[in-house]
Amino acid sequence: MRPSSSPLPGFGLGMGVLLAALGIVVLLPLGALIGRGVAMGPAELAGHLASSRVGAALALSFRAALIASAFNLVFGLALAWVLTRYRFPGRRLIDAAVDLPFALPTAVAGIALTTLYAPSGVFGGLLEPLGIRIAYTEAGIWLALVFVGLPFVVRTVQPVIDEIDPEWEEASATLGASRLRTLRRVVLPTLAPALTTGFALALARSVGEYGSVIFIAGNLPNRTEIAPLLIVIRLEEYHYDAAAAIGLAMLGISFSMLLVINATQVWNRRRIGHV
Questions:
Q1: Residue 4 pLDDT level (bands cut at 50, 70, 90)
Q2: Mean model confidence pLDDT for the chain
Q3: What is the dihedral of CA 206, 212, 216, 217, to 10 degrees?
Q4: DSSP secondary structure string for all residues of 47-88
Q5: Which one of 72, 102, 117, 142 has the fewest CB atoms closer than 10 angstroms to its CB?
Q6: Virtual CA dihedral for 112, 214, 139, 248, nearest 10 degrees?
Q7: Residue 90 backbone class (left: φ over 0; alpha: ψ -120 to 50; beta: rest)
Q8: How far apart (Å, rounded) are the C-alpha atoms in residues 39 and 113?
Q9: Residue 166: is it exposed, middle or buried by C-beta count within 10 angstroms (0-12/13-18/19+)?
Q10: Using CA atoms, how far apart are residues 114 and 216, in angstroms rounded to an integer?
């Protein structure tokens, strides 16, 4: 029997199923959205995006997502390092709790966070006398996005940390490098591609997050109203073109941000010799 020319058995069938699923799940919805935008035309599209309410919602969504993802980048790295490098009582419990946002419905997470951080809640009641308010402010949105985005950074970085040989750090210390210099010159360059991927995943999840945010945000127009909520509002008002315009704006901004992040990731990989 002549061997198959494909390195994987059933490659043709698998590729066909993959392309069909990709087209149905991703390309068709995106094509319909872009087609709606083309049908509207640039003038009408700009008109739907010109209101201050739309601008404020888009700015809030991307600003909050960037801040939350940056926080998760630092805190997620620290958490992944502790869980990978150290053994302590309760480690397995904490490690399992990292995956909780994956399993917990986002609406439940939003209700729980609102209950805890509302002025009458356990934590909110303690912070209110200090003049610190979390729920129904932009800080509450940051908190919700940190909650949903943290696992992406931790789970992306953990395997890479596990592969870093501690002897590299010992060799660096033997040569007289401080801990900070070892972290900056030995550890972080190795983790940079994984950190970039984790940041991109957390950012992508945060930008489109809806369920966990709407309960704690307060949803005040021009203040704490996120873009996904405004899309839902426009759909409920049967303003489909306005909803599509906001969706296209989010798509364009998200694509541009991910393009920059992916270019940075490729540069990091080439710099350390992975590709």
A1: low
A2: 87
A3: 40
A4: HHH-SHHHHHHHHHHHHHHHHHHHHHHHHHHHHHHHHHH---
A5: 102
A6: 140
A7: left
A8: 41
A9: exposed
A10: 5
Contact indicator for 117, 135 with CB cutoff of 8 Å: yes
227-243 as b/e, with b when 16 or more CB fall inside 10 Å?
Answer: bbbbbebbeeeeeeebb
Residue in the structure block whose two tokens are 């985005």:
149
Structure tokens at 145: 């996005």
- Specify the pLDDT at position 7: 60
Higher pLDDT, 190 or 78: 78
Distance CA 8, CA 18 (A): 14
Number of other CB atoms surrounding residue 130 within 10 Å = 7
Spacing of C-alpha 41 from chain mean position: 31
Q: Phi-psi category of 136—alpha, beta or left, where left has phi over 0 and alpha has psi -120 to 50?
A: left
Structure-token pair, residue 37: 């935008």
3-state SS string over 102-125?
Answer: HHCCHHHHHHHHHHHHCCCCHHHH
State pLDDT tens for residues 150-209.
Answer: 999 999 999 999 888 777 777 777 777 777 777 777 788 888 888 988 999 999 999 989
Q: Which residue in 231, 253, 248, 249 sits closest to 240, CA to CA?
A: 231
Do 136 and 224 contact (CB within 8 A), yes or no? Answer: yes
- Within a 10 A sphere around the Cβ of 261, how many other Cβ atoms? 18
